[in-house]
Design goal:
Blueprint (H helix, E strand, L loop, with lengths): L1 H12 L1 H16 L3 H17 L11 H15 L16 H17 L8 H5 L3 H45 L1 H24 L6 E3 L7 H10 L14 H8 L2 H14 L9 H20 L1 E4 L7 H10 L1 H18 L3 H70 L6 H44 L4 H44 L3 H59 L3 H75 L1
Helix pairs in contact: 1-18, 2-18, 2-19, 3-4, 3-7, 4-5, 4-7, 7-8, 10-11, 18-19
Amino acid sequence: EKMFSSGASKAKVERKTAVQLEVQQTISKKVEDEEAKQKYQEIIDLLLAAGYFRARISMLSAFDKVVGGLTWCIMSSNFDIDVDLFFQENATIGQQIKLCEQIVKALIRMRCPHRLQSFQIRGLDYVNIFPTIQWLVNRVIETREETGDVLRHFSEWQYKRRLDQFQLQHQPGILEQHQQTRQSAVNYTQEVSKKYKIQRRFRQSGKEFQNAEEHILATMMEYGYRPSFVPPAADIKKLGNQSGSQSVAKLQSAVSGALNRDKKEDDDAATTAAAKAAYDRQMNDMMKRFDSINISNIVSNQAIGQFVGKHSGEIQQLVSEYDEERKLRMPTEQDQKAFGEESHRRQVETRKKQIDNLTKKLNIVKEKYDGLLDQQKTEEVKYNKKCAINERIAQEIEKLNALETPENTADLQMLRALVALNESLKAQEAQFRATCKQQLNELQEKIRQINEAKPDAEKLARQDLVLQTLQTENEKFQKARQINARKNREIALLERKIDEIPSRAELQQYQRMFVELYEQVHSKLIETRQFYISYNTLSDTKTYLAKEVSILKSIDDNYSIAIKTAANKDKLVESMQTILTTVSQNLEKAEKSFKEEKSIRDKLNEQFLNLVEKERQYYKSAKEFQEECSKNVQLTAQLEN
């Protein structure tokens, strides 16, 4: 109380400044820049399009709408940010600053391409906030596309499950029907699985396979699968797509490829017959790998007879239809003869091509063989020489080993090492002699050429000129080095001076920190002044109320005495008139001070509006100046080009 009473006088003096600040703050919220308004409206439209419908609430402030939309987008993007984003409407300044810092950390963890600072969010810089909101809304839409189908299927499944439970609980007849249907379905599934159960018909004998395709084919044949023959000209890929079984198509292509490797694709009868024979041989070889057969899976003769007896009429009808169809499709003798001649001609051409190819291959192989034969003879001669040398060395080694005794073992080992060193030195000496001899011959040849050449006066003059030029250039080079060293010292001195001056980035960082600090201090100052104003108002109200209570109390105390005599009544009336006069004087003073403050406020408001208009004109002029500068740069570039 003492602190507030001592600061009350100072607070009264600062009332005008506080009122001015409140007026400026109220007017600044109403009068915004057109671009900021446009960006703000675009941000609200984006948030509504993304699904954040709290932006429609008119009672919320712009800060709550924008920051709430940022928080909602970050949480809805389903990204692990490891940051506590606690959004609260009408938060205090400290909570707002903390929330803005948490949002900036979350955007950094999400690797947002647009840099956003906490003071920009706190100051509602819509121009810089808009790209971040746009990027976050795109992330929210992508997350919905990824998880939308899963959530929709899960919700449909939940709805159906709850609906079935509700029907089973409230409709008794459906429960028995559901149980009967479920039991019949289970029994039918078990019967089908038993009837069509996979049964093994063969067993492998344990022989090894050449490749993985053969192993896969043998495993499938154990369970009754037998691949059909595919002609060499068949389109295996198309057949596999039509049948709908990629694995079978791959196995068939592997079998036909193994049988028809290194052959050209043709559709003549001889090639097809050869491929069919190779296919039959491979199938027989594959069947030999199996030891035992499961006879229980073979259909009995009695069952076949019963089936034929029941369906004899249908079988006869199908046989007659097949004979008619075969007669219709039977080729004539001329067609058969033409087909045979064409087939023979294709076979002859194929054989000729094969003969030509094999002849070319044979010639190539013969050339390679002759070259390798000559190389072999040369290598045999070298080998014989090496063998003779090796035999002589082996004989000498045997003689040396025969002389070896425990006493001279160390000496012999040293002798062997010295002999090896001697041989290596001899080889090096021979190589060095050959090199020196070659260099000596080259130098002698150069000396001979120089001696034979006659001195030329022009050449000598050119050499003198070159030497003089070299000396001059060396002097220039030394002078340039000295100048360069002096310039380097000056540059180093300037660099040290430049380093002492803060850079633009550092100045921007300092400015940003000062702006944040100024905003915090400014907001705190406004709160403190509001507290002082409210305290002074309440203190004055309390004083007036205390005076009013004391007057009423004195009137109440003296009223019973005053009404007894006429003189006392007159004194009471006079005192009441005096009190009324004092109150009216105080009221006139308060109204006069109110009118003065109101006139001051109106003047300040007019000054502020004039300054706002000047600021708007300044920004408009600056923008026009920038546009004109850009036009000037473009025109200058065009003129230079």
